[in-house]
Amino acid sequence: MKILDNIFLIPSSVNCYIIERKQECILVDTGMSKKASGIIKIINSNFPDKPLKAIFVTHSHQDHIGGIETLRKLYKPSIVAHEEESPYIEKTKELPSFKGLGGIMIKILDKLMNLPSLKVNQKVKDNEVVHGLKILHLPGHTPGTIALLDIENQALFCGDIINSDKKGEIILPPKMRFALDFEQALESSIKMLDESSPSVVLPGHGYPILEPEEAIEAYLDEYKPK
Description:
By secondary structure, the protein is of the alpha/beta class. The protein has 7 helices and 14 strands. A hairpin with an 8-residue loop joins β9 and β10. The longest helix is centred in the middle third of the chain and has 14 residues, at 100-113. It starts with a strand and ends with a helix.
């Protein structure tokens, strides 16, 4: 699904986004491992002469990184993640445990997928610009969670920092059961929306918000401290 002239949504339980540049393609998150085949078909069909140059990882949860290994073997892209999230992707550190049902679900998913350690080629910091994407470090969901702001068209790739409804009309807060620190995650979501003026809001879960001004205003009105 085309979101903007150069941005394509690959929908599933996790949204992945392909960004078309003049000579290359960029991918934001990969979804589960089984989703890699669909990503490959879209790249090969639509961008046969534009190699996959980089995969940006918004955070290290398995449902966002499961397809990296397959895609890396085929295209050899650079893997880009925040420096504080990289140890969890490379498995040099274990992600702190979640409380409650969310923690149990993530542990089960980790065991079922049993992903290998994945080398991060480029470890980034807040406010860096890489492949035309500005890095926004927004901890809380995980320590190194990031959003990405496309400098060219102001599209905002949010990962799990916020969610949206099925119609793409309402911005929803981060899910408490999957956030390591929900209060910090909520503060990060407020900061992200308060300090940017995105043309579109592209969440990891839910439908893209194509005219986000009213939805952002409503979210800040409800969640931003008075």
